[in-house]
Each structure stands twice: as structure tokens, then as C-alpha cells.
């Protein structure tokens, strides 16, 4: 522990200039955020002309009839226009709030609010919670029209929306209640660790945040998810038998197999797994069951279990923890930096003794400035599944799995057709925005994996 603290102290020494240099941090944040927004707008403008193409890529022409392709092009064009507008709108809103001193004003209002409740400024954690929720609500309200338009105009126009106005409002209220129910205690403990540990807070805060994530893994499916969707045991039948057999062959620790009523909000489809290492749950959207054959759904699940086999969630968790650690390691220098708060319009009396939550929020703004490989690896897993199962369970266990790669390809095509997904994608736009390779890239990859598999057998 002392070694960690000594190394962190060295980092803080190198950043000591932050506490004295009069830097216009607000201008830096404005320039950086606008640069990112304009770059994303440029990518959309690169992608937009592809929605005018009259036919799908050659590799997909046999899978898309002309009417479906035309619908997907129109859907993509409408989404691109909305994304361009909403991106510029949100950036203009954020930039305006930053420029007029909204954050400093919110801290002041939070202090006045808790004062009326009998709390003095010494109750910094109470004021911090009030501050965060003032920011949350007042910055959320101006963006509500975008959510309404996306759900009831854009998705409705293209036949995907199933959300009623009552359900929309109910979901919104539930989200706000959950944000306060879980956010307030989290924030209180988060700030209490700062008070208790001082500048030696990093390892303690890391331990708390990892513990919180594990708690949420348990609470999300048992407490939060049922507030929005109904999870029912997957009905007996071919799909259940295929899924349970697949899990058994891979020694996947399947505890529950659910069907979720995703169709109550949208006709888009999905499947995923979650849970602790020794007890996993698979969730399949009812829309996926309706849109795909059981053997195709099985292939999609084979891909998802490939993520589990190669420990992709654990690797992403490790990457996120390293990212969080690096952020926390840099933060102490900004925690004691009056010039930082002064640059964002906070009065001298507040800047002189920076509140932890304010300093952390501004630090995040300054710092705000990586997963397609995993998808190809999971696709290869589905293709190689027959050989893997044969090696561990024998010839009988591997029966019926020879065409898993072909089934996955058909399932991907079917999902793209049903969801009117974009099939013409600009390479730069895809590299920046997409966590998954494009459909054409994945189909080409599946063909390559199949060829390599056959070559090994020769």
C-alpha cells in the first residue's frame, strides 16, 4: 500500500502546477468538446451519401429484397439526420450552460436548498447530493424532446416503436426514482471515503467501486430489470432444449434461462447473458424468438457464449478498472486547485476550498477526451464450436454443430433485415462509432474461419 501511495505522490508532484497556474480551463473544455462534436458531425456527413445507394453490397444482394433494402436506407437516412441535429443541439446546450456559469449557479442553489432544510454549508456531502441532482434534472429536461421525437416519430415512422405515452412517462419517472435511490447513497459513500482517507483515497475508492459494481450485478436482474420488463422462464420447446444442451456442452454455469418482453417497447431484438462467475443467466428477447428460427437463435447464443469463453466481460472490466485508477491517480492535483474552480465562474470563497464533487466534475470535463476484436473472436468461437465440443465431449456431443458458422451468418443477416440495419457503412464512421464489425465484415470473417477450419481437417 505504501508503494502505491509513494508512486501516486510522485504523480501529484509532477502535476503541482495545476494548483497555481491560471489556465482558462473553461476555454479548453469548450474547444475540446466542440472539436469532438464537429468531428462526429463530419463522420455523419461522410456516411450520409451511402444511404442514397440503390442496391445492397454484392455479398448481400441475395438476402435483401429491394423493398426491404429501400426501407433500411430510408431508416438509416432519417437516423443520420436526427443524430446530426441532436449532436449539435446537445453540444450547444452543454456549451451554453457551461458559458453562463450554470454549474457554479447550481452549487449555490444547492446550498440555499439545504439551508432551508436546516443544514449549514459544513454539510458538504448533503449539498453535493443536492448539487448533482439539480444538474441531473435541469440538464435532462431540455433533452426530453429529443427522446420523445426518437421514440414517437422516428421509430414510429419505421414501424419499430411499441412504447405508449403512458409507458414512456412511467419509465422516465422510474428512472429518476432509481437514480436518486441508488445515486444518493453511492455519492454519499464516495465522498465520505474522500473525507476519511484524504489524499490516500485511491485504493479505498477503487475497492468501493468494484464492490458497488458486483452488488449491481446482483441487484439489476432481481430488483431493477423487473421494474421495466417482465422476465419469464423460457418455455419448454426446441429453443430451450438447444440452449440448455449448448450450455452443458460448454460447461457454461447456466442458472436461469429467460425470455424478456422487449416487444412492449420496440420490435428490435437482442440476447445477452449476465451474472456472477458461478451463476449465469441468459436472456432472449421475445422479438428475437419471433424473428429467427431456433437453430439461428442457438448460433447467436453460441457467439454470445464465445464472449464468456474468452472472458471478454472480465477483460473489459479490467480495462475499465485501469481507466478508473488512472483517473483517480490524477485527480488529487485537481482536488486542491482553486484556479480550476475560478476558471468555471465559482466565487473565490468556494474556489479557495474546492468541494470534492465540484472539483471531480470539472476534472472529468477536462479529462474527457476502446472492442471490434472481441466480436471477431466470438464469431470464430461459434465456427470452431464443433471441434471444441468434440475434443472435450466426444463425437456424439458434437453432433449437429458442423454448420454453426453458417447458422450464425444466416441469423446475422436475418437480424439485419428485420431491424432494417445499415449495410453500407463508411470505414471511418464505423471505426469510430461501432463496437461490432459491419455485417459484410463479419460474414467475410465467418467465411474465412470456415475455410481455415476445413483446411485444418485436410
TrEMBL record:
Record-level GO cellular component terms: endoplasmic reticulum membrane
Membrane topology: Multi-pass membrane protein
Keywords of this entry: Endoplasmic reticulum, Hydrolase, Membrane, Metal-binding, Metalloprotease, Protease, Transmembrane, Transmembrane helix, Zinc
Record localization: Endoplasmic reticulum membrane
Catalytic activities: Hydrolyzes the peptide bond -P2-(S-farnesyl or geranylgeranyl)C-P1'-P2'-P3'-COOH where P1' and P2' are amino acids with aliphatic side chains and P3' is any C-terminal residue
Annotated CAAX prenyl protease 1 N-terminal domain residues: 47-230
Ranges for domain Peptidase M48: 234-448
Record EC number: 3.4.24.84
TM spans (from-to): 125-154, 175-195, 201-220
GO MF annotations, alphabetized: metal ion binding; metalloendopeptidase activity
Pfam families with a match to the protein in the record: Peptidase_M48, Peptidase_M48_N
Cofactor binding, note field: Binds 1 zinc ion per subunit.
GO biological process: CAAX-box protein processing
Binding, Zn(2+): 303, 307, 386
Nucleotidyltransferase found in the keyword field: no
Essential cofactor(s): Zn(2+)
Role played: Proteolytically removes the C-terminal three residues of farnesylated proteins.
Family membership: Belongs to the peptidase M48A family.
Protein name: CAAX prenyl protease
Organism: Coprinellus micaceus (Glistening ink-cap mushroom)
